[in-house]
Structure formats: structure tokens, C-alpha cells
Amino acid sequence: xxxxxxxxxxxxxxxxxxxxxxxxxxxxxxxxxxxxxxxxxxxxxxxxxxxxxxxxxxxxxxxxxxxxxxxxxxxxxxxxxxxxxxxxxxxxxxxxxxxxxxxxxxxxxxxxxxxxxxxxxxxxxxxxxxxxxxxxxxxxxxxxxxxxxxxxxxxxxxxxxxxxxxxxxxxxxxxxxxxxxxxxxxxxxxxxxxxxxxxxxxxxxxxxxxxxxxxxxxxxxxxxxxxxxxxxxxxxxxxxxxxxxxxxxxxxx
Length: 253
Fold this sequence. Notes:
The protein is an alpha/beta fold. The protein is 33% helix and 27% strand. The chain contains nine helices and twelve strands. The protein has helices at 42-49, 72-78, 94-99, 114-126, 142-156, 172-187, 199-205, 223-226, 229-236; strands at 3-13, 16-27, 31-35, 57-62, 65-66, 79-82, 160-164, 191-195, 208-213, 216-221, 238-240, 249-251. Strands 6-7-8-3-9-10 form a six-stranded mixed sheet, sandwiched between helices. Strands 2-1-4-5 form a four-stranded antiparallel sheet, covered by helices on one side. A two-stranded antiparallel sheet has the order 11-12. α4 (114-126) runs antiparallel to α5 (142-156). It is globular, with a radius of gyration of 18 Å. The model is unreliable at 246-251 (pLDDT under 50).
């Protein structure tokens, strides 16, 4: 069973400490939601979990093997990552963008296999963008582009899926669609760790919620224990009346 362990990891950006020593353990079949205000350290923790950022202290291991010992290709086959900045630097067809998810599996000068093609097709259907396959990415709306990038991640069929604000650019219908996809791929055996601002959706879909603030993990566990009223007030500056329901939140002056 896939297991990802971050032990006492910390990180700096340009000399400034972005994440205090933090630990997190998660395994296959679960959705872990990272919540917290902007600048809390959520993206940094995701990048450490994916081996995209080397920790200043501590270690990250996948199934007992340090990420640092895996080749880039081996790591990319096991871990898929979707950044919060989903801009595409060049104009290409949506289907070709999604096909980039299969790049870690391709041999030099070899064409896509039947397995690759099936993964690409299924990913586009799942993300509801099959009808956009021939469109250029730079002609898409922000929501369509976000779903195309999600399809690229899905095409990898990775054991670990790391998502940084995957629903930020989406309308309510597609927010729910993406969260349903997240829940489904976890049910199929993947480990999903995602940064998300929508607390109500985190409560609805996540198995574990990790609350972060100022580079610290403040709490972790089921929503009923990790999102206490006192912690919500302290971390987010909001008061929740009657649970995380529409119109239940109000600012604390």
C-alpha cells in the first residue's frame, strides 16, 4: 500500500523560513486537505511531498524509500503534481497537453502505446474536456484550462496525486465535479493531498484535514476535531455559527 511520510521537514525561500519543521503521514485511498490562509505553507508542503523542493531539514519517503534517491522519471511515474499556477507557456492542442502526463512512461523516439492513449482518453472524459481535445489551450477559459491541466495529472495514473488549489478557477458545478473526481481516484487506490480554500468542500470530501498557519501545522485529523471553532477563529479570523454551512460564517472584527 502506498504510503508517503514527511518527517520534520522545513523549507526556506530566499533565506526566509517558509515552513517550520512539520510532519505528515498519509496512505493510499485517502484524501488529505491542506487548509489555511494565504502564505500558510500549503504549497510549500505540497512541493516537498512531490520532491520538487528539497527540505532544509527532515526527510520525505515514499513506501520507505527517500524521495531524494529516486530518479526524476521514477518519481514522476509515482507522483503527479498540479501547481496552483496553471498557465501554459506555449500554444498547443488540449489533447497534446493531456498527453504530457504520459511523458514519464515514454521511451525515447517511441510513440504513444495503446495504454498511453487509453489513459489520455479516459482522463479527458473524466475531466469533462473530451469535446475540447482539438482546441488550443490558449483559447480556453480559465475554468476549461484548469480542467485540462487536471486531465494531464489524471493521465499519469500516479499513486500519489498532489493538487494545489485545483478548484480555484472553476464554477460551482465544476468545483463539485472535480471534488467528485478527487474522491473517486482515492477510492481507486490513489493518495490525494490537496490545498484548498473551500472549507465546506474540505469537510465534505476529505478524510483528513490539516490546518496550517504561518508555516506551522496547527492541527490535523477529521473535520470534527481539526476544524474546531476556536481554531477557525484563531487561524482564519472567522466565527462559524452552526457548522460549515452556507451563510454560517462571519468575520471577527
